[in-house]
Amino acid sequence: MKWLAAAITLALAGCVTAAPNSVIRLAPGEAMTVRVNENSGQILSAEKSAAQPPSEMLQAIARAASAGLLGDASGPNYAPVYGGANTQLPPPGVVRVTLVMLPTRQTILYVENGYDQQLSYAAALEGGPRPGPTDVCTVRPHSFGVEQWPYLIDHIDLSALKLSPWRDGDQIVCAPPPRQT
Questions:
Q1: I want to staple 163 with a disulfide (CB 3.0 to 4.6 A). Which of 117, 126, 127, 167 is the partner?
Q2: Residue 7: inside a domain
Q3: Percent of the chain with pLDDT over 90
């Protein structure tokens, strides 16, 4: 019977059931697959795993950012990135977030949105030269978003996940972080 309890514990070790409006915390090298209530934004389940090695696309984005080819991609100055022919679409009905540290000493947050609605969220960095809330962009339905910081961080906290309708002609919105008082 002890082996059954141990097997169940191991099977559930990566699964976290989160409360409404809870925080998703990721350190570099971690990924999390999240199911969200489409009406309330409540996190229904979250499963943490090790991040896969950065894809060639993410490495190309990091090289372009390092070379200054993406300009100031902060606030309303987002830089659209389009996947190549080998880009995999996110699985339906989940959000998958991955935080990776690149050999170029940059941090990349890769957000995959498998819902039929756009995803918005808030983010705060811990560690690095600019800890605290940071600007992030909405992620279109069945697409991905990439956030990049040209330095290393200890971890990121994602909160206020919200799904909302996306209509043809809608633009990606990059929200500045809330003001510190």
A1: 117
A2: no
A3: 34
